[in-house]
Amino acid sequence: MQFELKGNVSAIKLGFSRDPQSRLTYQLLSGVETTGKLLRVVEMQTGATAIRTEKALHKRIATEMPDALLPQRLFQGQIRVRSELYYQAALPLINQLLDELEPAA
Question: Lesser CB count within 10 Å: N end or C end of the chain?
Fold first, then answer.
């Protein structure tokens, strides 16, 4: 997911959801003026697999791009999430990691 925050900050959210569009619309953005959109959805066999995969991806991002994590002060009160938002600059790495998850077409 991508969000446009105050101060001209673009943020990227990587996360698991059974229904990504509902999570975006009704959980993360409900009642706030921030705009957001889904950028990509990767299907998982089970919720447990998705959660394990998400945790592993966050760990890889922290290792490979430690400055990618957006400080909470930049998004607090604008989006209903407490962590795991990244600067826009992390998007190429996130897409690469998601590419590695998807089987070749």
Answer: C
